[in-house]
C-alpha cells in the first residue's frame, strides 16, 4: 500500500508540472509593465535685488504621458523666513499631457540696503503625487546675500582725537566713500609665492567680495572658497609706491577677526624693499593677532643684523577682558629719529631704539608704506579647523598720520 501511494503522488506532481508548462504560449509576448513618470524639483539660487523679484523652480518629469500628472507643493522656512524674505505659498502643480516641465514662482522680497550677510535658504517640498511618483521631493532656494555692499557694525570702543599738540594731520583715510581709493591703495593678487614666505593658505584678490567700504569702514573679508588652487580668499592692501611716510604719530582704529587660523595684520615695510630686500628694509608691525589668542595683539619691529640674520624686538598686549572682535581699538606708533614707541589704546607697550638694532643696521629712519591684510593660516597661526567660522572680517575705521 505504501508504494502505491508514493506512485500516485508522483504521478499527480508530474501531471501538474506538465499542465503548467503547457499553459505558456511562446507566440504570445509577455505584457510590458506600465511605468509612471518620475517627478523632480531642482535647486535655484539668485542674488537679492533692491526690489521684489521672482524665483522660479522647475518641476521636471522624466517622460511625457497622455494624461496630466500632478504633485502638491509647499514652502518651508529655513534661514530665509516668510514673509520677511519671501512669500510662502502652497498648492497643486500640474504637468499637462505631452509635457515634461512646469514651474512654481516664489516672490522674493527686495532689500534696498543690499545687506551683506550669510546666504539665506528655504525649501520647496513636493508631496501627494497623482499619476506619477516623486524622485526628488525637495529643493533649496538660495538667496545670495553674501556679496551685499552694506555691512554695518557696532562702532563702540576706543577712539583717538583728530589733533595732537605739536602735530598736524599729514594724511588720513577715513574710508567714508563707497569705493577704495586706488590712488592710494594697491590690491595685491595671488599668494606671493609660498604665502609671502609665511606659508599662508589664502589667495588674495581685488574682488569686492574681499574688500568692501561700508558705513565708514574698510572691511577686509576672508572667505572659505576655492580660489586659484587655494581653499580661502582674502585681501591684502598696500600703499607701496603711492603713499610712504617717515616719522610722526600713526593711529589705526580697527576691530579684528579672532578665530583659529586667522591672522589679521596692520603693518609697514621699508619703501626700499625692492632694492635691499627683507628684513634689511625694516618692518614695523603695528598690530598682529593670532586667532588662537583672541584677546592678545603683538607689535614687533624687524631688521637685518650685522651678520645678515634676522633681528627683531616685540611685545604683546592682553585685554583685561573680552577679545578684539567685540569693540574697536586703536593701534599706534609714535615714530621719531632713532626711536619707535608702540601703543594699544594709548597704553605704551613697546619701545625700540637704534641701540636695539645697532646704528648701522637700524632701518627705521627712512620711508615706509602701509600693508593691511587678513591672512588665513601660515606658520604663526597654523591652519583653520572645523571650529573656524567663515567669513572672517577686519573692520578699519581710520588710519591717520600726524607729523
Give the total of domains: 2
Low-confidence stretches: 1-23
- CATH fold-level topology of the largest domain: Jelly Rolls
**CATH C-level class of the largest domain:** Mainly Beta
What is the annotated CATH architecture of the largest domain?
A: Sandwich
Tally of helical runs:
3
Biggest β-sheet strands, sense, barrel: 10 strands, mixed
SSE succession: HEEEEEEEEEEEEEEEEEEHEEEEEEHEE
Portion of residues within helices:
under 10%
- Mean pLDDT across the residues is 92
Shape: elongated
Percent strand: 35-45%
Radius of gyration: 34 Å
Number of distinct beta strands: 26
Class from helix and strand fractions: mainly beta
Q: How many angstroms separate the termini?
A: 127 Å
Summarize the structure in words.
The chain has 403 residues and is mainly beta. It has two domains: 107 residues, Immunoglobulin-like (Sandwich); 234 residues, Sandwich (Jelly Rolls), CATH 2.60.120.200. Helices cover 7% and strands 43% of the residues. It is built from three helices and 26 strands. It is elongated, with a radius of gyration of 34 Å. It starts with a helix and ends with a strand.
Brief account:
By secondary structure, the chain is mainly beta.
Topology:
Elements: H1 2-22, E1 38-41, E2 44-47, E3 53-61, E4 69-76, E5 90-95, E6 101-108, E7 120-130, E8 133-134, E9 138-144, E10 169-173, E11 186-187, E12 202-204, E13 211-214, E14 217-227, E15 230-234, E16 236-238, E17 248-255, E18 262-270, H2 273-276, E19 283-288, E20 296-304, E21 310-318, E22 329-336, E23 339-344, E24 347-353, H3 354-357, E25 368-376, E26 392-402
Parallel strand pairs: 1-8, 2-9, 12-15
Antiparallel strand pairs: 1-3, 3-6, 4-5, 4-7, 7-9, 10-26, 11-16, 13-14, 14-15, 14-26, 16-25, 17-22, 17-26, 18-19, 18-25, 19-20, 20-21, 22-23, 23-24
